[in-house]
Write a structure and sequence with these properties.
Length: 200
């Protein structure tokens, strides 16, 4: 329907991550397509979603929308001291009604005593699953890609590692699923360098 959701640290000032007071937290925002010029879409000024989604004192990140448009997944993140990496990251979800997006709830089955990020709903073996990246022990490298089978709204089964065909000794992150294909980024394969994009 022309709606775009993303997360941003939108600011006209340089953002210094020093854990002092101030609104320097990333938020989920939305905007609507207003038209296009020569095939390039144009969007209205974005607006931040309400406090049900954008929790004060936390960074919101990695937003994705289910294929039916009714469930939003995202992470709530706390940065390590001086912004050096992530101290905590958990996956949340919210559902849409006629009134808009409801309150966010923690996804059951995905989170643990590790960093969980980059949620994306997909399908495996004809069933809905949630793909995500995590640094849980026993993986192939730094961050690996996992999936959890969906049991009910916001409730998923135990995480399953996608294995050595997908996961490398490096970081494998940012899964995106569409029509039987999984796209992701990896820095653990001999290619251009850094986080390159792969599909399977």
């Amino acid at each position: 329907n022309g709606q775009l959701y993303y997360t941003t640290l939108k600011s006209k000032e340089v953002i210094v991550v020093d854990n002092k007071a101030g609104d320097w937290f990333s938020k989920v925002v939305s905007t609507t397509q207003t038209g296009s010029t020569e095939g390039v879409p144009e969007y209205a000024e974005p607006t931040a979603l309400g406090q049900d989604i954008n929790r004060e004192g936390w960074h919101q990140g990695n937003v994705s929308i289910s294929p039916d448009g009714n469930t939003m997944y995202f992470t709530r993140v706390q940065l390590a001291e001086k912004g050096q990496g992530l101290a905590a990251s958990q996956v949340f979800y919210a559902t849409k009604s006629k009134e808009g997006w409801g309150a966010a709830n923690e996804v059951v089955g995905v989170n643990g005593s590790y960093i969980a990020k980059h949620p994306c709903e997909g399908e495996l073996f004809g069933e809905k699953v949630l793909f995500f990246a995590a640094d849980m022990p026993g993986g192939e490298g730094g961050f690996d890609l996992y999936y959890c089978p969906r049991k009910s709204e916001g409730v998923f089964g135990l995480p399953v590692n996608l294995g050595k065909v997908i996961n490398s000794p490096g970081d494998d992150v940012s899964p995106f699923y569409q029509e039987g294909k999984l796209w992701f980024s990896s820095n653990g394969r001999p290619t251009m360098g850094g986080l390159d994009v792969f599909e399977t």
